[in-house]
């Protein structure tokens, strides 16, 4: 068998389907959100397993981590509310994946679905995650809620953005790319914009990285300077040696010539 629909779960995970990695085939099982409720085009959110973190599921927004399920314990993720759903983790030399089963008291058709806004809902459309990840981009004033990224948060600022943001498909938000520039201002033309803030620990780490790079550059320049000075000193010494040998040869030739002349005259 070369292909089966269970390998591509789209935005919905059914009992027995997998979220993880097929190590033998190199295939990844993940959920992909729709662009909007009405548009099945590929959305901005994916849910799957980080190959480096095998005890939880991860939610990505355009490739960046925006939240996790928390650790799996006794069939439950500690950050998700999925009553009646029993998750399990399986690992062998061919695959690593999460799957789930449901208890007998689940009467509706069981499913886990990722919404266009990054939220996860069950068969009754009840939220599994505590809130929509997308809320932080739409102007929510709650910073660093449970569903938001553990690596970043957003703060409210007044100003203007260079260039036009994306407002397609009536998502309710205007989003700018990383290349855009935010200009803080409080005049009449400014607007409230939520700007991504770096985590202080990450900023501190970047400071250390900058220091290491600066030290490496300084060391490289010092090595180049020492090598240049050594080369010039060797050239100078070599020229002195050449002049000394030339002088010795000249003296030798002069003395030898005088001796030959003296012997000839005698």
Your description of this structure?
By secondary structure, the protein is α+β, with helices and mostly antiparallel strands. The chain has one helix and 16 strands. The protein has one helix at 200-265, and strands at residues 12-13, 19-22, 27-29, 31-34, 42-48, 58-61, 64-68, 72-73, 76-77, 85-91, 95-102, 112-114, 120-121, 152-161, 182-184, 191-198. A four-stranded antiparallel β-sheet has the order 3-2-11-10, with no helix packed on it. It has a four-stranded antiparallel β-sheet with strand order 4-5-6-7, with no helix packed on it. The chain is elongated, with a radius of gyration of 35 Å. Mean pLDDT is 73; it is low at 1-5 and 131-152.
Can you give keywords for this protein?
four-stranded antiparallel sheet; alpha+beta; Bulb-type_lectin_dom; single chain; disordered N terminus; Agglutinin, subunit A; Bulb-type lectin domain-containing protein; 266 residues
List the helices and strands and how they pair.
Elements: E1 12-13, E2 19-22, E3 27-29, E4 31-34, E5 42-48, E6 58-61, E7 64-68, E8 72-73, E9 76-77, E10 85-91, E11 95-102, E12 112-114, E13 120-121, E14 152-161, E15 182-184, E16 191-198, H1 200-265
Antiparallel strand pairs: 1-12, 2-3, 2-11, 4-5, 5-6, 6-7, 8-9, 10-11, 12-13, 14-15, 14-16
Transmembrane segments: 207-233
Keywords: Disulfide bond, Glycoprotein, Membrane, Signal, Transmembrane, Transmembrane helix
Domain Bulb-type lectin: 1-34
């Amino acid at each position: 068998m070369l292909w089966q629909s269970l390998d591509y779960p789209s935005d919905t995970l059914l009992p027995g389907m997998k979220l993880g990695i097929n190590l033998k085939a190199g295939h990844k099982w993940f959920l992909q959100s729709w662009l909007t409720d009405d548009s099945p085009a590929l959305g901005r959110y994916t849910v799957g397993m980080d190959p480096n973190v095998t005890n939880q599921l991860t939610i990505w927004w355009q490739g960046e981590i925006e939240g996790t399920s928390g650790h799996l314990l006794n069939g439950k993720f500690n950050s998700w509310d999925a009553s009646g759903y029993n998750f399990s983790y399986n690992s062998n030399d061919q695959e690593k994946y999460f799957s789930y089963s449901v208890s007998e008291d689940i009467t509706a058709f069981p499913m886990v679905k990722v919404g266009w806004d990054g939220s996860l809902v069950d068969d009754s459309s009840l939220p599994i995650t505590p809130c929509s990840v997308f809320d932080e981009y739409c102007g929510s004033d709650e910073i660093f809620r449970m569903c938001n990224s553990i690596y970043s948060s957003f703060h409210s600022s007044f100003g203007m953005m260079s260039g036009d943001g994306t407002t397609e498909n009536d998502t309710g938000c205007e989003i700018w790319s990383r290349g855009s520039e935010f200009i803080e201002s409080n005049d009449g033309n400014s607007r409230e914009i939520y700007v991504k803030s770096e985590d202080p620990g990450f900023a501190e780490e970047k400071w250390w990285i900058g220091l290491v790079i600066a030290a490496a550059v300084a060391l490289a320049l010092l090595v180049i300077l020492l090598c240049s000075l050594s080369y010039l000193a060797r050239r100078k010494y070599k020229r002195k040696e050449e002049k000394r040998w030339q002088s010795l040869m000249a003296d030798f030739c002069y003395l030898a010539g005088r001796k030959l002349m003296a012997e000839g005259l005698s």
